[in-house]
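In response to reviewer comment 3 from the previous cycle, which asked for concrete evidence that the modeling workflow produces usable outputs, we include below a single protein chain processed end to end. The sequence was submitted unchanged, and the resulting structure tokens are shown without manual editing.
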Amino acid sequence: MQALSFPGYGRVEIIEIPRPALREPTDAIVLVTTAAIGPWDIERFFSVGEESVVPGGEFAGLVVETGSEVTTVELDDLVSNTVRHLSSNRTNQLFGSSSLPGGHAEYVRVPNADATLTKIAASGEERAVLAGGTAGLGVNVAAAAISESPEGSYAVVGCDPIGMTALITLKNAGNSKQIIAIEDHTARRTLASGFASQALNSNDTLPLEQMDIVIIGSIQEAPKFETAVSLVRPGGYIIFSEPYGPIRTTESGVALPGGVTLSAAAWPTNEDAKKIITAMQIKRLDLTPIVSHVIPLDQAQEAYEAAAGPGQGVQKVLLKP
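The workflow returned the following structure tokens.
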């Protein structure tokens, strides 16, 4: 079958590898119909020595094989996955890593299919593919912010697709004193302005009143963390959308205001994904602004460059095998 690989820094190629087979009775094999390029995929795109990794943390497709112990999905069901997989020894694995091949391929093996796959409708496939990753993290980080300060003021720093999902979720909740968005990418800032009280460049004059909660979007660099620190009030919260975010700030050397708590969203579970898909179906959560490009798999180099730039107007890039 065809799959993507990274032969060098910033390079993608299509390779031929064996089609995956069932290994455990809890496995399923999915014929991929849509996949997304996530921040974890872009990180590997810019890594050296990742040629053996089949990327693709988020994917949707048709179930074509199931193990004898799979009970919640059947052959020909259209499904999407959760990016995180909890292995039998209780360790976290992400699809698209060296230990678990992802969905930027024609087929993908899904361990523990009952806890990893969610049935979806064909009409919403290109948004439902995000439920177990991008959308799940955005919704979870917004929920964490609301839990800590139900009627607080919020800032979202980094309006990438995860940050945008958080922004949309916060606005939908409708109980905030103020929501501001910080984004240096012009097109993303323009998009964010429809969901925030203010949408600013990090070099603009920031609000004098500091925020109760500051949410940080995906793949953060030190300057964005510095912006977050400047926005949060003493005793407030900085919440990362990605679970490994706080670990990456330990070497930044940036001093936190007194009493500020660092935390992170949890990886979306199968139950989280189901709730998000239902919210999409009943029009409570509209992620249409998040998906900007759908590109054939054979144009993967261009797709990854667009997603990694990101280019003008680029939000979430999907691939079609």
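The longest helix spans residues 134-148. We consider this sufficient to address the reviewer's concern, and the full set will be provided in the supplementary archive.
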